[in-house]
Amino acid sequence: MNGGSDLRGVVARGMRLLPETIVFGMLRARERDIDLTLPPPVATRAAAKRLLIAPANYAGQGRAWAESADSLDDVAAVNLEVSRAGGYDFPTDFRVSQYVFSWSRRWASAQTDALEHGFTHVLIEAERPVLGRACRFDVRREGAWLDAHDIARAYVSHGSDLRLPSRHAELDPWSPFRDSDWDVVPDLEASARRNADFLHEQGRPVFVSTPELLLDAPPGATWLPVVIDPSRWSSTAPPLDGSRPVVFHAPTNPRAKGTNLVAPALEALNAEGVIAYRPANGVNAGDMPPLVREADIVLDQFRVGSYGVAACEAMAAGRLVVGHVSKQVRIAAAEAAGMPLPIVEADPDTLESVLREIAAAPDSYRTAAAAGPEFVKRLHDGAHSARALASFLG
């Protein structure tokens, strides 16, 4: 650890000894626009089983899984998001700012009291703490606290918290973890190993949001499919109905999506008139549905070998989705849905030829696009995820 990190650690420890009002005053003096509002404690309606999902809510999935679980008999479920500055504004049942979560004794006390008296189960996202200062931000201490209060716990991993770069790089030639200039890879490797060891050690139910993560999870882990609301994305406009297909790509993580590897081919095809390429960056989640519905083809990702929320949304809209999906993920998805995953396979080397073929013979690809809504209905509308969570809720 360098000297700067050591100094920051000393300052943080010193600040935690100060009264909360003084700490909040120091934070406001440093950054005026931060959110230091103490929100109400988490709560849910009366039911035999009361589930809290926290604290990540990546891509709105904490809220979506809570809604899925809430559909089960005698289950009430809500989610809590610890929000970080600059994050995406996804719907959530409860939200607390990272500053309040990190510094407020009052919030931590209210949170532990709400859990002790209001909930029977907790699904912990991304191996992150959910009780703030109450257990010193230590997930092992939190686990012991939950056990002592007879609150059942399980864990769900979303992606980079558990995906092991060395394993991924070995299995997939397009893995972003092969990039020699990506200096965060050693940290991601160390973090994923720590989290995997923690999950093994805890011996509690483990869920993963994508089937590819089953390769890194403890034996017996369960795929908890991502959930979307198909009605927000459905479209009656047929895809591939014009002479020049509109190709849409909105990467949240360009390196992982492989944007830099495919952009030259896309720009060349656009200039040639084969496609109309429409890239987008920084689009709010609420503004995305019309952009997807206006496209013929939605490009997902070309390096991770899986698919997620964005691909499901595009499939629900009946758009033709193109991306790189590993054989392992395709097999798992087909077995769970009872039908093939309707994502057209392409990698950075083959994308140009695949798009040329689609543009030249669109009729051959309309069937794959038309299968998207049915696939999402079978696997990603919440019913399948509710059944997966039922195994934890008992």
Name some characteristics of this structure:
394 residues; alpha/beta; Rossmann fold; 2 domains; 7-stranded parallel sheet; 5-stranded parallel sheet; 16 helices; 12 strands; 13% strand; globular
In short, what is this structure?
Helices cover 42% and strands 13% of the residues.
Overall 3D geometry? globular
What is the H/E string? Answer: HHEHEEHHEHEHHEEEHHEHEHEHEHHH
In CATH, the architecture of the largest domain is 3-Layer(aba) Sandwich
Q: How much helix, percentage-wise, in residues?
A: 40-55%
Number of domains: 2
Total helical elements: 16
Q: Specify Rg, calculated over alpha carbons.
A: 22 Å
- Biggest sheet, in brief? 7 strands, parallel
Number of strands: 12
Mean pLDDT reading: 94
Briefly, what CATH class of the largest domain? Alpha Beta
CATH domain fold name of the largest domain: Rossmann fold
Q: What gap, in angstroms, lies between the N and C termini?
A: 44 Å
Please identify the structural class as seen in this structure: alpha/beta
